[in-house]
Design goal:
The chain has helices at residues 10-23, 40-50, 88-91, and strands at 2-7, 29-34, 65-70, 73-79, 102-107, 121-128, 131-137. It is α/β, with parallel strands linked by helices. A hairpin with a 2-residue loop joins strand 6 (121-128) and strand 7.
């Protein structure tokens, strides 16, 4: 299945994240691709809030991963932007994060190439003159 949208506001990006949460409840690995400031973390915020998260959602730019336990499901939000080498993921035990009972949302997955499982869902966000163009392949 493919979703394609033009997004003009942060609220619309969060709504798309909520929609993905409903469609991807059984998907394990979600790649989020897009330039800095494209709205990847905003989409994750909508995803997590739709699953019941209350509170802030920050980008794990410096910590690499932020864990959330929502409705008995473990959800991990990765931001690999500051990764110098995919091998660095070995140091945080990255393989332990991926299971059939967890969901991983991964920003900048290309920086972890060779150390990450294949994506179940790929979300591409492109900055365009009037907002964002989003393509999701499920």
């Amino acid at each position: 299945m493919k979703i394609e949208r033009e997004i003009k506001t942060a609220d619309e990006m969060m709504a798309l994240g909520a929609e993905l949460a409903g469609q991807c409840a059984d998907k394990c690995v979600i790649y989020l691709k897009g330039d800095l400031g494209a709205g990847k973390t905003t989409l994750v915020r909508g995803f997590l809030m739709a699953l019941g998260h209350k509170g802030k959602v920050k980008s794990p730019t410096y910590t690499l991963v932020e864990p959330y336990n929502l409705n008995g499901k473990q959800i991990y939000h990765f931001d690999l932007y500051r990764l110098n080498s995919p091998d660095e993921l070995e140091y945080i035990g990255v393989r332990d994060y991926f299971s059939a009972t967890s969901i991983s949302l991964i920003e900048w997955p290309e920086r972890g190439k060779g150390m990450l499982p294949e994506a179940d869902v790929i979300c591409k966000i492109e900055v365009v003159p009037r907002g964002r163009h989003v393509q999701v392949e499920i």
